[in-house]
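Comment thread on ticket #2218

A.B. wrote:
> Attaching the input chain for the structure job we discussed in standup.
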Amino acid sequence: MELFRGVAAFIGWLTGSVAGIAAIFYACGYLVARAHLNMLGLFGLFEFPKERYLQEGGKFFTVLASMLIVDMLPLLVLMLYLLTAIFFLFIVFVAACHVLPLQTFADRCRKLISIFKAFPKGKPWLWSLLLLVCLAYVLVFFVMDYYNDFAAVLGISNVLYHSSESLSELPNIARIERWLLEGDSPRLHAYFLHLLEGEFLALVVLTAAWYTTVPFHKVRLWVISPFLLIVTLYTLFTPMAYGVLVRPTKYAVVSFRWKEKVLDKESAVFYLLNKTDREVVVWDEASQKVSCLSSEAFESMQVVGLQALFRKQIQDP
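C.D. wrote:
> Ran it. Output below, let me know if you need it in another format.
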């Protein structure tokens, strides 16, 4: 009987976990797809099925994990080497203090540490307040700098209809639009990693603020609310930035067998953006237009390749 109860409890926990993971995937996939369509200038023209949002969310986390492993692993290894070197130097210093005539210097260091420990005696909140001020400084002058970088990405729209003469007047946005139109994936990925650094730094500062504000338990949530707000915003912005910078812009190139001969569409190149039972949404590269074609307008549709939407080469002015 106990075995069955344990199995039932495990199944209940697993069901709840799967539902929670699916909800996270769906929410992130929705943000990714919406940001991507807004960047292209297709927002509001069609809707993806719910299964597509789950797929987009799964791809987001898969690519995110891959990028972190590939790009952040060398940095983590370097940090490990640095920490090992610092620990080794500390051991050498402690050993030297006992072997060499450095006892006076070591005593002074211990005395200085004892002074710092005795400084807030009877007022344990004082060190917490000083550390909180330092964390607030880091939040305002370092973490919040990334807000403008996120805003530049999320301010991009209608790139599908852009050319070298129609880039944004804002230099930060125009720079990213140029990378998109040129298909400069290395720079786009590097910019996304830069935004991930902002998200990581915000999480570190929030964690430090949470443990620093232990003496202020009555107003703890109010004190850390600015840190929590920035982390929440960056967490929402990250999948949206992925939808603009990293999500592939390759779509299927299709050809149609029309029921009635249409001269201006015989040699056109169509990119398949979305398909339902009733219609297909395509991008006509020649006329630079988005078309919604009824399924009754053609007999069949054939996929002839896979190409990126942006193949324009923009020359620097």
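A.B. wrote:
> Thanks. Noting for the ticket: The mean pLDDT is 83.
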